[in-house]
Every structure is written in structure tokens, then in C-alpha cells.
Design brief:
By secondary structure, the protein is mainly beta. It contains one helix and eleven strands. It has one domain: Jelly Rolls. A hairpin with a 2-residue loop joins strand 6 and strand 7. The N and C termini lie far apart (114 Å).
Length: 164
């Protein structure tokens, strides 16, 4: 069983709006023998936010069969959908704090299988500072004042021209 020291580091790439995405996966070989396995992956998030991830494997024959027994992101279990030759799992909307995150994949291998997955992260929207709120409220007050201000009366003036 891997320890945190030999966990595989997942590289996250930055996208639009500060989103991060990355891929992970492993080939599970047990020297031609079948059996239980554990693989550990880590990745680092720069800020707090929301994380989602998915994992899958497809069997070609008994040797390449993988059955997930559990997949955990920071100790929170994925929803797993075993379906014979196709195994799939996912987790959505997991609130995550900045720092190192740990993904642990546990399962049973036919001896020569593989799995892969993706991780997506969206940072939490920033909350405006009190000074920003005060300026916003001042702007609304100015607009309201200008709309309620009494407008000067318009006077009608008639001009008569006489041509003699």
C-alpha cells in the first residue's frame, strides 16, 4: 500500500476564470497475479473552492478487469457504478480548502488492468470588501437622489410676430 511519500503528484493546468483541471491514472500489474491494490494521488489547490472528479476502467478480458472497492477524495467517497466490464465513479461539488488534496483508489485487479480519471476545480467567488460595499451603496444613493430631485418647472413662452 503506497504511503503519502510515494503518492503520484497530479499536475493541474489552469483554464479560464481560475479553473484547474488534471488527469490521473495507473496501470495495475501484480506480476501476472490478481489481487487487491491501492493507488494514491495528490494535488495542490491554491485557494478554497469546489472540486469534482471522475474515474473509469473498461475490461477487455479477465486479466484487464478492475473492480473499484472504494475511491476517496480527502476521505469523501465517490459514487461508484459497477457494471460488469465497465466501472465508473464520480464525486461532484466537494468543498475543498487550499492545500494538498489526497485521492485514494482501492480495488481488485485481474492482474493487468488500468484506470484513468479527471479532476476539475473551480475557486470560490471572492466576497467584496466592506469598502467596496460602501462605495456601491453610495452610488445607489446618488442615483436615487438624482431621480427624486424636484425638476424645474417648464414655462411655456409664446412669441407673437407682427409684420406691418
Amino acid at each position: 500500500m503506497p504511503t503519502a511519500a510515494n503518492a503520484v503528484e497530479v499536475v493541474l493546468e489552469e483554464g479560464d476564470g481560475g479553473t484547474l483541471t488534471g488527469e490521473f491514472g495507473a496501470v495495475v500489474r501484480a506480476s501476472g497475479e490478481s489481487g487487491d491494490f491501492t493507488r494514491e494521488f495528490t494535488f495542490t489547490l491554491p485557494v478554497d473552492g469546489t472540486t469534482a472528479a471522475s474515474i473509469s476502467t473498461v475490461r477487455v478480458d479477465a486479466m484487464t478487469d478492475i473492480n473499484f472497492t472504494s475511491v476517496l477524495l480527502n476521505g469523501v467517497a465517490f459514487s461508484l457504478s459497477p457494471n460488469g466490464g465497465v466501472e465508473f465513479g464520480s464525486i461532484e461539488g466537494l468543498a475543498t480548502l487550499a492545500g494538498v488534496q489526497t485521492l485514494v483508489v482501492n480495488g481488485f485487479s485481474g492482474g493487468n488492468g488500468s484506470f484513468a480519471g479527471t479532476i476539475s476545480f473551480v475557486p470560490t467567488a471572492a466576497v467584496p470588501e466592506p469598502g467596496t460595499w460602501a462605495l456601491l451603496m453610495l452610488g445607489f444613493a446618488a442615483v436615487g437622489f438624482s431621480m427624486r430631485r424636484k425638476k424645474p418647472e417648464l414655462r411655456e413662452t409664446r412669441v407673437r410676430y407682427n409684420f406691418a
